[in-house]
Design goal:
This protein has a single domain, classed as Methane Monooxygenase Hydroxylase, Chain G, domain 1. About 85% of the residues lie in helices and about 0% in strands. The protein is built from three helices and no strands. Helix 1 packs antiparallel against helix 2 (about 45-65), helix 1 (about 5-40) packs parallel to helix 3 and helix 2 (about 45-65) packs antiparallel against helix 3 (about 70-90). The protein is elongated and about 65 Å long. It starts with a helix and ends with a helix.
């Protein structure tokens, strides 16, 4: 346990940020999971779920919850899966 007042404050701030980031990260993962599920289900239009997932990924990257390159990579992989799913029925 810290003895210095500034370190005690820093520990409290880190805990608050950790809890906030956990919620953001959890929601982002849920949106990605829903978007991927919508891509595999032909009866559902996946456009809205893809848009929501991209929005959460970008926001997490902007806020520093995840690294901006990680956000770009996740967006890229999601869109790659979407394009693959869109091309599959056409073949």
């Amino acid at each position: 346990m810290a003895n210095i007042a500034s370190q005690k404050k820093r520990n409290l701030q880190n805990e608050v940020r950790r809890v906030r980031n956990k919620g953001v990260r959890s929601e982002m993962r849920t949106r990605i999971k829903n978007a991927r599920a919508a891509l595999t289900d032909e009866t559902v239009d996946a456009t809205e779920s893809l848009r929501a997932a991209q929005k959460r990924i970008d926001k997490a990257g902007r806020k520093g919850v995840i690294h901006k390159n990680t956000a770009a990579r996740r967006n890229s992989r999601l869109m790659k899966a979407a394009n693959k799913a869109a091309a599959a029925p056409a073949e």
